[in-house]
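Instructor's aside before we start: the two examples that follow are unrelated to each other. I chose them only because their records fit on one page, so don't look for a connection. First example below.
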Amino acid sequence: MYKRGNESQEINQKYALQCFNEAKEALKNNELAKANELFTKAINLVPTCIPFYDYRASTLEKLGQLDDALRDALSMIKLDKTAVKAYLRTGKVYRLLNQTDKAIKIYNIGLSNVKIKDQYYKLLQKQSEELQYKIFKSGSSKTCDMMRFLPPELRDDVLKRLPFASLCKATAVSKTWRNYILSSAVLWRDINFERPLRNTNVLDDQTIRVYAKRGGRRLRKLICGDSPKVTDKALSALREIPCNRLQCIVLSDSNISDENTRAFVKTIGLNLNTIDFSKSDITNMTISVILSRCKHLETLNLSFCNNLTTEAFNPAIVDNKASKLNDINLQCCDQVKGNVIDYFIVLFPNLIRLDLAGISGLNTKYLDKMKNFVNLKLLRMKGDLPMEENLILEDAFEIFSSNCTNLCTFSLNECQSLTDNCIRKLVQSCSKLKELDIMSNIYLTDETMHLIGNYCKQLKVLYIGKSPGITDAGVINVIKSDCGPLLEVIDLQRNSNITDETLKEMGSYCKSLKETNFTWCKNVTGSGVGALVRQCGNTLKHLVLQECYNVAPDAIEYARKILGKNGIVSYEFRGKF
């Protein structure tokens, strides 16, 4: 109810103008919901002002509420049948609704009612002529966009099922689709710039700011991958919005400062459950902030963070609130030592995934202590595990394996003391193994392969290259075992014992094979390659034959022809035939 009299009318007009100006500013800043609310207030105060309806109709167009926008446009015509902007707005909305017949009709009504001297008369005439010419050229005025018939909730439900890259492409379908997609914050909750969508040289602060604004406060995931051009401005933009519901951030190899990372975590990082700041300059102080603030944290990737030390996880220093953390990646963190295991046992007893490949100071004592992680499903290590406290490696394997029976992925490369008996202890206890990486271990023999074939019934990935004790017989034993039809990846690189016999058996039994590596396998020839690709051509995606000097170029061309566009044959030879 509004005040009566001249005085109250002036007050209403003054307040309406104030709302109108604020709404225009909000519209300029792309705050569409706020602008719509303020334009509505202005109209309620002064319901006869055409510009108020015009601006609200424009805002509703951007929100994708085209039926409401049409209602405002028709109200403008009712208020003044000579207002050229009313006909321009109505015609535009009809065009967005793909109702071109009605758009032409409203343009023609406008041309008959508007004075020829009006400054926008020629524009109205031009719009009418262009639309009629377009229809004449296409041969039909009947087009149908099914999206406009769906309610906003259902439309969002359909579009949010698209992958992120496809959603971005869908904005180019039409102006209507673009308005639908850009005006919906629901569709921009999960932003993923990972390949194949983008190039690392393109992603920068401004790109992140634009897309994060689309998600606004509803943004849940921001996955950027390697982003060398991203700086502190990107995190500042996330704080300004603010994206305080963010649950996952992947921002590696960036130029973000350690100080700004801490400010980000303190302000809007409280709901994070996944953090990936790999290849960054993150320090112990920032880790302390993350562990004390992010109580929902489950995954933490700090690989190649060379400023981190073991003390970042010292329970005597850290006020740990991240009790749910179960996935830690410290790959190649040079200053982190093996005694970090002691800290993890106290802080994170429920670890499921642990990547320690490349850190120094690991030995049999720490492998033994990993028995405390009874829920462990993934463990990666690299390098030798020297004996400590008179505990030999075989005994350490037995203790570890008998407690961590849920292990699915195990990796131990370049361990000079790894033997067949160590593998025996592992595979007999861990029957759920699906991925096994034991490359570059010189004391392993075909006995290891027999053990894998007998016990690893679910194995899908096997890396066993650079192991000179492995021969055709051992590999064929695995191929013909229960896991043979399940194997997707086999790496046998730099093994001169492997011949065409292995490739032929692989083609016969490995019906799920996707990738295999025979680099420097000098006894592999074109005959074996041909047999393999003929049998596995439908599934094989990557065949590596680098420096296989007994494989002739015509065999390579034949393999590429069989694999087609969906497969890759990597081949390079610098020697002589």
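Example two begins here.
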Amino acid sequence: MNRNIISLSLICLAVTGCSTVSKKSAMGDFDYASKEEAPALVIPANLSEPQYKNEYQINNKINHNGPIGKQVDVRAPSLVLPVATASRVENSSGQAKIWFDKVLEDKDLQEFIYQAVVDELASEGVTLSELNADKLLYQSSWFVNDKETGWLFSSIEETVRMKFNYQFETKPHGRSVAIVVELTGFEKVNESGQTTEIDLIDKERVEMKMLNEIVAQVDLKYRQLQRDNQLLKANQQLVSLGQNSKGEAAYIVEMENDMLWSNMPILFSKYGFTVNDLNESKQTYFVTYTKPETTIWDSLWGNTAPSVDLANGRYQFNLEAIENSTAVTILDDKAQALSKDKLDSMFDVMNLALSFRDSL
């Protein structure tokens, strides 16, 4: 199921809870909550008073208006989940807050996080408006979730409406951006028109849930960019026609010389070349080309490699480093470089071979 479809429902679920079994309260009886404090021990006058320890004595400086017994919320606290790349939380902060550190050098980090918030809200049909540009403070429109009952004739049993503030914080160097989420509006109305207030614990849980949805959106955007970059590299033209330093026709490969040199045996074994000798100092392979024979079984199973448009015989592959690329010159048995036209006629096959895409 699409994460965007269920995110608001999960937030509302954090507020409404389960309708049949409450997970807020501890299980068992709560008789202890109504017990009176035991009277002090009366010591007869002719006996010595025993020694008392006050380690566990509870003084009167406590919150007498807090929940007792069944009203005590025993749920574990909600946590911010820093699942996005280079995200982190501050344990000292009681806010729904997370920090993001710069990962993409070509993108403004604050704008990137802001766009993730906009995209997350847009998936729920919610907009983001500016409250204070100088303070980087923004506010969402209302999130609305209607709980319907009935099958043929449905009716709204309960409506939950929420809106949030989003406070950005940027370090002076611009390489770290924080976002704080605060629930600023909440309405829960049943079919009778009765409203329910949200308590502090549920408020915190809703804020944490909303922040985690934003972190997940940031993580999604990072993954999408990573996928796009991988596709770009996969489709990148690594081989082109050019010249070596002597002006001879050559294939120019966007690969470092050492890496290409070590990978050339893969090309030779796959495309019908046998290595007879090599001169590493001159970066030259001496090979014999024999056009591979293709059987009907190779055709059926797709095991055939494209054939190189060369006559059977002896050849030399000379590699030469040119800046960040490598020039590959092919010489015949008379040590004459193949012409540009010949290289052009073989380009489709050699482009595939020298990029090693079919060898991965």
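Residues 158 and 190 are 4 Å apart (CA to CA).
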